[in-house]
């Protein structure tokens, strides 16, 4: 079994003098085994930036490698909700286990 993330963002053109500010991170966490897939999704609102020292420019995120982008974005979620990544991945795995334990749906001819 493995997990994977898909991350998108709502970006505002300007906030508090900062350009291209990530306002909301929209996330999907997938757990899979073979052809069976479980998906959780949600969003995390980010506070507006106030400190130039901690502000991460959107272009820097876009230029980073995929794994670095994942670490930056999920790092924000972890700061706001400690344990977010581990809890979400565990919940996706639990949902996958439920799906794997279910019987395959039966095909019934109605006409």
Give an overview in words.
The protein has 111 residues and is α+β, with helices and mostly antiparallel strands. The chain has one domain. The protein is 35% helix and 36% strand. The protein has 3 helices and 3 strands. The chain has a 3-stranded antiparallel sheet with strand order 1-2-3, covered by helices on one side. It is elongated and about 65 Å long. The chain starts with a strand and ends in a 10-residue tail after the last helix. 8% of the residues are buried. The model has no long low-confidence stretch (mean pLDDT 92).
Which tags fit this structure?
111 residues; 3 helices; 3 strands; alpha+beta
Total of helices: 3
Rg measurement, Å: 18 Å
Q: How can the largest sheet be summarized?
A: 3 strands, antiparallel
End-to-end Cα distance: 39 Å
* Poorly predicted residue ranges: none
The shape is elongated
Structural class: alpha+beta
| Beta-strand segment tally | 3
The string of secondary-structure elements, in order, is EEEHHH
Fraction in beta strands: 35-45%
Q: What kind of assembly state do the chains in view correspond to?
A: single chain
Percent helix, as a range, is 25-40%
**Overall mean pLDDT score?**
92
Number of domains: 1
- Which sequence of strands runs across the widest sheet? 1-2-3
